From TrEMBL:
InterPro entries on file: V_ATPase_D (IPR002699)
Stated name of the protein: V-type ATP synthase subunit D
Family listed: Belongs to the V-ATPase D subunit family.
Keyword Transport attached: yes
Coiled-coil residue spans: 32-59
Xref: Pfam families: ATP-synt_D
Keywords carried by this UniProt record: Coiled coil, Ion transport, Transport
Length: 201
């Protein structure tokens, strides 16, 4: 660490630094709070999507007990053919959101498969869409949590290190300069008294 010069110029520079840190800290703290709020929103959306997924699974289990029948080939009924994502900036963090999703649906000949395969195909589409949304929300969560960690580290750096250190430097320089000023006043008084004493002799 560089040695602190105890001078008026250094004192002025330290005061300017302190003012800059104190201006910057509230903006950082505001960003931290906004990120915390955005993360809570994503968590709420994720819980909602997971709830919808559970409801869908329950509906399928109740209405399609025949899925336990393994002799019917259900492979490839539905698959994602195109996924379009939209980029959005949330509190300085770029995230992906689902723009559009397209599916490849296997044609179901009326006589070749049971009647319940067509509604199952639609439910598979719904389930896959929910899966994609949940994956995107989890990615958003990770990105925002990383940004929050960085901002929190910066807030702590300013609040617990830079500002206290700068205040300490200002105090130290101030005490040194006051001592020097007192010393010079005392020295000049002593010199004046000596001159007067010499002149009086």
């Amino acid at each position: 660490m560089a040695r602190l010069l105890l001078s008026k110029a250094t004192l002025s520079a330290q005061r300017q630094k302190l003012a800059a840190y104190q201006r910057f800290l509230p903006a950082l703290d505001m960003k931290r709070q906004q990120l915390q709020g955005a993360i809570k929103q994503v968590e709420a959306q994720l819980q909602q999507q997971q709830q919808q997924q559970r409801q869908l699974e329950q509906r399928i289990a109740e209405q399609m007990p025949m899925l336990a029948e393994t002799s019917i080939d259900l492979q490839g009924l539905c698959s994602v053919s195109r996924l379009r994502l939209q980029r959005r900036n949330v509190v300085g963090v770029w995230i992906n959101e689902l723009g559009d999703i397209e599916f490849d649906l296997v044609d179901i000949p009326l006589m070749a498969k049971p009647h319940w395969v067509a509604p199952l195909q639609q439910w598979l589409k719904e389930g896959m869409t929910l899966d994609v949304r949940q994956q995107l929300l989890q990615q958003q969560q990770i990105a925002m949590a990383a940004a929050l960690r960085k901002v929190t580290q910066r807030v702590n750096l300013f609040d617990k290190v830079l500002i206290p250190d700068t205040r300490s430097n200002i105090r130290r320089i101030g005490i040194y300069l006051d001592d020097k000023e007192r010393e010079s006043v005392v020295t000049s008084k002593i010199a004046k008294n000596k001159r007067q004493a010499a002149g009086g002799l």
